[in-house]
Each structure stands twice: as C-alpha cells, then as structure tokens.
C-alpha cells in the first residue's frame, strides 16, 4: 500500500523524502497512517531499484527537514518513471479483496481520482459487502449475548453497529453516484439533500468522522 501511495503522489509532482512523508501523512490521515523515515526510505530504494522512480538533482535541506540523528545532507528529489506509471496503473487494475479492508480501502480511495470508473465501482461494492458482513456480525452479537455484556462493552458494540450502518449508507450513495456518472457532492447542511451533524459520512477506512 505504501508503494501504491508513493507512486500515486509522484505522478502529481516530483518530491523529496520530507515532502513525501508530509503528503503521505496528509493523504492517508483518514486511516491514521504513521509513515516513519525508517519505513519510507527503504521503500523508496526498492522502487528505485525496480526502475519505477528515479533521483533528480539535490536541493539544500533545512534543519526541519533532516531526520533526527542524521547528517544534514541535500534533499534527493524523486521522480516517477514511465515504468512507474505503468506499475501504478497495474496496481489499480489489480485491486482485489485487500482493497475492501480498512487500510486498503483508505489508500485506494485517496487515489480514486486516478482510478477508472469500473474499478472504483468494484472497490465500493466490495467494501459495502465487507461492512455489511461486519454489521450483521455485530447484530448477531447484540441479539444473542447483549444480556451477558457489561454496559461499556455493550455500548462499544452499539457504537460499532452504528458506524457500520452509517458507512453502508455512505457507500450506497457513492455507488449510486458512480452508476449515474456523477462525482461525489457535499451539500451544505440544511439544504435539500444536505446532512446534519449526526449524519456525516465516515472517513474512508474509518468508522466515523468527528466534527467540532
């Protein structure tokens, strides 16, 4: 998934390691991604060895951009190659069951703008089935064992069920938009079709979105 995300970001613009880390954290923040330099740079070296990215000229590094306990060297800028673009397209086309899980779905959803409609629809429908299965499992637990659960565990199960129901509704809206050829919309609360604070769609890969 990190490989997929790096290749996707480098299609937008060349970046050095510090920029990539910032963009990855921002882009994948929905799934609480914690990208460390110890994870990022080995992946970059692997992508470079495969011929999917290449290094451009170095630029001076600032103190803020140098990882702790390392030398203050220039920033190596990474650029995606033609082979890297082909690899990214292959990863999108090969999207399978792993993209229905929380992490896989969050990463792929972040790059839906670069994904073809048929693949987006396949991932959304697969994610909906996944969450529906999770929802039915929670309903089963609450139906059979609610009286044996303490108040806090019971509340946690109810919260999980509520989150699943919200995400299923959100996914159904996205699927309907895809089938009709419309892009997702965000109506203002209080307008026709708008959502209230308690009806916000979940962030991709998470159970629900918190609002201030």
Structure description:
By secondary structure, the chain is mostly helical. The protein is built from seven helices and three strands; from the N terminus they run αβααββαααα. The chain has helices at 2-10, 17-27, 37-49, 82-93, 102-110, 117-145, 151-180, and strands at residues 15-16, 53-59, 75-80. Helix 6 packs antiparallel against helix 7 (151-180). Residues 175-212 are annotated as: Disordered. Residues 6-89 form the Transcription regulator PadR N-terminal domain. Pfam families: PadR (PF03551). This is PadR family transcriptional regulator.
The span between the termini is 30 Å
The secondary-structure element order is HEHHEEHHHH
For the biggest β-sheet, the strand order reads: 1-3-2
Number of strands: 3
DSSP helix fraction: 40-55%
> How many helical elements?
7
- SS-derived structural category: mainly alpha
Shape: elongated
Largest sheet: 3 strands, antiparallel
Question: Which whole number gives the mean pLDDT?
Answer: 80
Radius of gyration: 20 Å
Percentage of residues in DSSP E strands = 5-15%
Which parts are unreliable, with pLDDT below 50 for 5 consecutive residues or more?
A: 205-212
InterPro entries: Metal_resp_DNA-bind_regulator (IPR052509), Tscrpt_reg_PadR_N (IPR005149), WH-like_DNA-bd_sf (IPR036388), WH_DNA-bd_sf (IPR036390)
Domain Transcription regulator PadR N-terminal: 6-89
Region (Disordered): 175-212
Organism: Micromonospora maritima
